[in-house]
Amino acid sequence: MSGWDAPLLRELGENTRRLAALSTQQPPKPTQTRIFTISNQKGGVGKTTTTVNLAAALASKGLKVLVIDLDPQGNASTALGVPHQEGVKGIYEVLTEGTPLAKVIQPSTESPNLACIPATIDLAGAEIEIVTQIDRDKWHNLLKNSLEEYLATIEVRPDYVIIDCPPSLGLLTINAFVAAREVLIPIQCEYYALEGLSQLLRNIDLIQKNLNPQLALSTILLTMYDSRTKLASQVVSDVREHFPSQTLNAVIPRNVRISEAPSFGRTVISHDPTSTGAISYMEAAVEIAFRGAQNGR
Ligand SMILES: Nc1ncnc2c1ncn2[C@@H]1O[C@H](COP(=O)(O)OP(=O)(O)OP(=O)(O)O)[C@@H](O)[C@H]1O
Ligand SMILES: [Mg+2]
């Protein structure tokens, strides 16, 4: 055997073993709907990629998942194969006009267990419309109230609601923090990864104290890990040291299958289920489910 293909063969063997392990693991259904917000005001750290791939991974294991796209870029809607061009009704109408979630929910092409509330570009103006047209005491509760009403009236509740946030700490993100019970922070394994994290933690703390005492930073997921760099492993050990109980064992590698999947309107879970990227997101999803069960969530 020539030397150059040995690492590739090793990876293939390793992936086969990981897939076999995953096939025997059935993530438990949570006792009540787990509501996650995927937040980090840093741009491009993998919030949307994490939202859609965890959602698809849980759905592929038979759990019912609702994704709420709260980012005007609408990237989560794209990746889930859900139309979100101008004119489509979505989270904008929910927040600014009080349209019930049930009226704007759309099935995802990914899985019959997966649905999405799309975001259109209209959402870019929503924060200004909210502060100019809605009473101040309602600003923060718009998403929470809609979601509570939805969950109270539907027949079969989702097991997971996953909210994809924009890269800012504005009113949309605050609405997500108030509607959610758990925060998942994706952290990119890069040099500036921890910059801005203390501001994010301060904000979560402020929301806990003032607006949503139920909110917990339950999960940290390391993303875009490149095993060839020392820096990436340094970030991993720093984050594990600071957040030992929240950081998942599963780490998401930098993987081209993950980044190309959205251009097919798919997640990596359906695009290439045997890729290292898909396997890693499946492992993260299963770990989140088992940790939740352990912690009574
Ligand atoms: N593990 C990965 N391997 C390779 N590429 C990735 C990975 N995770 C994310 N990407 C790519 O990195 C870019 C940023 O990811 P993503 O859109 O998920 O970040 P984000 O935090 O949602 O960004 P924004 O702040 O703009 O909403 C995208 O092009 C995505 O395809
Ligand atoms: Mg995004």
TrEMBL record:
Q: Where is the AAA domain?
A: 34-216
Question: Which SUPFAM superfamilies does the annotation name?
Answer: P-loop containing nucleoside triphosphate hydrolases (SSF52540)
Pfam families recorded for this chain?
AAA_31
Q: Which InterPro entries match?
A: AAA_dom, DNA_Partitioning_ATPase, P-loop_NTPase
Which protein, by its recorded name, is this?
Unannotated protein
Query: Which species does the entry assign this protein to?
Result: freshwater metagenome
